[in-house]
């Protein structure tokens, strides 16, 4: 692997880590309702899954294993977007702006993982 490819790999590792971390920070700003409590638990799991499975993909034992992990990353990023849409943010514009940014990041990661899958076939 060239140095450029290696640095890209770790840039995406950092990006997925920040994805999970930013979701956790966002959750702290949500109102305390029963639905937000349950949705927040799912948000933590799915956003963390993106980062964890990307690390696992980088340590894959085979090409098939790598592609499988990247597919899980893509699914978890999509799931994170769903839970993000479901959280209740009544009339709090600043929090809603953060939700929009996080949602955009989940979409960008889904596209990036999709491109990695296509290039790896």
Any overview of this molecule?
This protein has 121 residues and is mainly α. It has a single domain (3-120), classed as de novo design (two linked rop proteins) (Up-down Bundle). The protein is 85% helix and 0% strand. The protein has helices at 3-28, 34-58, 63-86, 93-120. Helix 1 (3-28) runs antiparallel to helix 2 and helix 3 runs antiparallel to helix 4. The longest helix is centred in the C-terminal third of the chain and has 28 residues, at 93-120. The protein starts with a helix and ends with a helix.
Q: Summarize this, please?
A:
The protein has 121 residues and is mainly alpha-helical.
Topology:
Elements: H1 3-28, H2 34-58, H3 63-86, H4 93-120
Helix pairs in contact: 1-2, 1-4, 2-3, 3-4
Supply the key terms.
121 residues; mainly alpha; de novo design (two linked rop proteins); disordered N terminus
Q: Give the beta-strand count.
A: 0
Order of helices and strands: HHHH
Low-confidence stretches: 1-7
The CATH architecture name reads Up-down Bundle
Strand content: under 5%
Q: So, the CATH homologous superfamily?
A: 23S rRNA-intervening sequence
Percentage of residues in helical conformation: over 70%
Distance between the termini: 17 Å
Can you identify the CATH class? Mainly Alpha
Radius of gyration: 15 Å
What composes the largest sheet? none
The third-level CATH topology is: de novo design (two linked rop proteins)
Mean pLDDT: 89
Shape: elongated
Structural class: mainly alpha
Q: What is the helix tally?
A: 4
In total, the number of domains comes to 1
């Amino acid at each position: 692997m060239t140095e450029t490819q290696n640095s890209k790999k770790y840039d995406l590792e950092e990006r997925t880590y920040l994805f999970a971390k930013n979701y956790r920070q966002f959750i702290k700003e949500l109102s305390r309702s029963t639905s937000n409590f349950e949705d927040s638990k799912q948000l933590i799991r799915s956003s963390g899954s993106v980062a964890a499975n990307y690390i696992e993909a980088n340590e894959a034992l085979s090409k098939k294993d790598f592609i499988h992990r990247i597919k899980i990353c893509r699914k978890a990023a999509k799931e994170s977007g769903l839970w993000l849409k479901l959280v209740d943010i009544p009339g709090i514009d600043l929090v809603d702006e953060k939700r929009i940014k996080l949602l955009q990041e989940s979409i960008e990661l889904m596209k990036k993982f999709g491109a990695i899958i296509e290039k790896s076939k």
